[in-house]
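Example 3.2
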Amino acid sequence: MNNISRALKIIYLFFKYDIDKSLMRSNKIGYKKYLFLLLPWNLLTFKKSINLPQNIRLICEDLGPIFVKLGQMISTRKDLLNDDIANELAKLQDNVTPFDGETAKKIIERELGQSTKDIFSSFETKPMASASIAQVHPAKLKTGEDVIVKVVRPDIKKKIIQDISLMKKIASYLDGLSNDFKRMHLIDIVNDYEMVIYDELNLIKEAASAKQIKKNFTNTDFIYIPTVHCTYLTSQVMVMERIYGIPIANKETLAEQGISFKEIAEKSVELFFVQVFEHNFFHADMHPGNIFIQKYNDSFRFVLVDFGIMGSLSEFDKKYLAENFIAFFKRDYASVARLHVECEWVPKDTNIPSLESAIRENCECMLDKPIKDISLSDIIVSLFDTARRFKLEVQPQLILMQKTLLYTEGLGREFNPELDLWKTSRPILEKWMKEQKGPKVIAKKIFNNLDDYMEILPEIPSFFRRISNHYSGNSSDLTKNFEQLKIIEKRLHSNKIRNHYYFSIILLVITFIAPLGALNIYKSEVLILLASLMYMSKPK
């Protein structure tokens, strides 16, 4: 019954905000648009002026927090939306009506198994903030420490399941309506959103994320992460150190405090790239509401809150992303195209010269702009939009990164319109790329994967003997050898061991096995082994 009433409300809003009239005026959905002419009110009001972007935002607001959050997420996907719709959805705010404070107390006491009076010397039933998933209450521990208590909304999971189900049905319908909707990958967006919002429901996961990012910045002065009190932690309740700072959106107060806007802009960019490329763990919801500024020593520091949405990239993705950035700013479009194929963001059989030409066509003019007008997030959008024509696979982890970069870049340019984003980020990228090469890095990676090598090494002598049997005329043994090599390949790849590791295996064989005289290796057999290992090291 709830599903039916929710669906009816969506249909009602669809007509209330004239979405049907917008579809009627579109040439993108063919004959289907004429079905809306059958609706009697459309015969009288068809000429009515319609602000489609605004109406879409209003629908999200009317449907409540789950759709508001979806709209916020979609607003960052400028590769899928027209700028006017994306900019309008960006105006969505978590202005959510709080739930009763006494209800919050009951949830806390149920989850922690104690009375709030036994835990806190004071607890304010009036929340200091209320968002889609949870709300926050100020309190003071018996020890005298100021804290905030985050409480997940009652019955929110049930509502999310209901709304996600409806979103999927709507996305499926729109996907079949026109190619324009199909291009937007609405079903993929809803699936990504489902994964993100379910993660936010679990405060234990958020607490773990907060602890990890705090650990990552232990030796850094320009960022601070509040402490989680794990004694008072469940999936529904989290107690965290209360921080006092200036909301980063409050530029007037920041100016009064004498805090450098130029430094805020540069350090916000540094913060993003350090998280992505050095820590491989980044805050993926860095909108202004989650960032505060504190005076610290003779300068300032960022304070981050709300760790419900975090992102990470594989070493593989980081490498190719960094190389893409560097190649792009060198206008080396051939390398950009080649990298897209190598990392399998597009199919292996993609025509690289054609992809190179398309990237150049879409992106060349972007680099002729003044530095202050060049946007890294726009570059990513342009690259992915171009690659999508070549069957780009959706990369959820890259979408999160793109969203975070969009926030970061917007923040940086807000404080310094002349910000040279590339000048600020390039040293970090090049430093990271340099650190991925050289003997020390290889030695470290060998050491980290030593257990895997030790497991594989005892098997190698038998491989040599079986390969040697091939020269006795037994070709079936060679087939078995390669089957065994494929098994090793899978083991290696399962542990993310890349090309340069295979050379390390050879060195280990020579170092540990050959001196023992365990093998009588002929030159030809060594060549076969090397060829096999090179074959395995090809990107899959």
